[in-house]
Amino acid sequence: MFSYEMPTKVFFGRDCLQHSGEAISALGHKAMLVTGRRSAKANGAQDAVQACLRNLEIDWCLFDEVESNPSIETVRRAANLAKAEACDVIIAIGGGSPMDAGKVIALLCTNTLDDERLFTGPYARPLPIVTVPTTAGTGSEVTKVGVLTNHCKGTKESVADPLLFPTLSYVDPSFTMSVSEKVTIDTAIDALSHAVEGYLSKKATPMSDVWAEEAMRFIGGHLTELKGKLPYSVREDLLYGSMLAGITIAQTGTTLVHGMGYQLTYYKDLSHGRANGLLLPAYMALMSETMPHKTERIWDILSLSGITDFRALMVDLMPERVALTAAEIDAYVELTMRKTSVAVTAYPVKAAVVAELYKSLS
């Protein structure tokens, strides 16, 4: 048997806020807009949300201090502001960082949680959450997870609960048109990683596999086109594929790639997507040993001949290498082995296996 839960209502397409924004009016009377410092303003998403709220006569306040890989301290500061402003709905605008932060802010507005219970629960229902993605990568607009940087533990950790599924998501490819080449590559590979990891997870189901294969089809068709200026049609496919990959991991979670990648992001300042991308080739080589039928299906969907072809593609997109010291590898292995993603990886993951994967980055 398997279960399936996807309570988020999605509006997808150009100007979806303009056409369907009235759904927000049922959620509250005052919104907190959660963004980073610049991108939501530059790409027009913040203006579109504010125009929608003006038309609905909904007041708002702005928290635009979300950093890449948001910290516990940041979401606590934002939640305090939301409570002081009597906000009753959270609207998160941006890439994965603002959306993940927005979910946890909504949770902290209705729950008193110390840093330990923040990641374990149990939780009372958060404020309603609305997401407006502006990158095609994390799929956070359709997941039940908010990932935070935990400086006390020296890694990233997930706050995960079905209560964190956004109520509404407005997925407009127009907001991704100005994304830089580097971020386009990083986020597309992050989305690909979600689809691949979900497909190869021990928790994969027949329904999650449908979403994963569709995600890989929409993303894979453009992997050789990620450099340079992209037309709207490609941006639309990438965002749609990213959303489908998010639906996949909402059912399966992620696997070893994410568990290892968090250390590269925290200590080596690699973006989340780039950390995943650098690890994917060696991971896929492992998975071909235990799930050959599925890895062959992946190569078919991506129109690749196999692992050698895939590795060459990833090196072309992400040519840098990461040389880790023996001490760093030991520390990262220890942190990785604590992650729940290890247990759902369809490979007998031992510390020595993780160490070899980190060594493969150099």
UniProtKB/TrEMBL annotation:
Fe-containing alcohol dehydrogenase-like C-terminal domain boundaries: 184-309
Q: Name one Pfam family in it.
A: ADH_Fe_C
Q: What range does the record give for the signal peptide?
A: none
Q: Which SUPFAM superfamilies match?
A: Dehydroquinate synthase-like
What positions does the domain Alcohol dehydrogenase iron-type/glycerol dehydrogenase GldA occupy?
A: 7-173
EC numbers: 1.1.1.1
- Keywords, alphabetical: Oxidoreductase
**Family statement:** Belongs to the iron-containing alcohol dehydrogenase family.
**What GO annotations for molecular function exist for this entry?**
alcohol dehydrogenase (NAD+) activity; metal ion binding
* Protein name in the entry: Alcohol dehydrogenase, iron-dependent
Q: Which organism is it from?
A: Megasphaera vaginalis
Q: Does the keyword NAD apply?
A: no
Record keyword Oxidoreductase present: yes
Top class in the EC scheme:
oxidoreductase
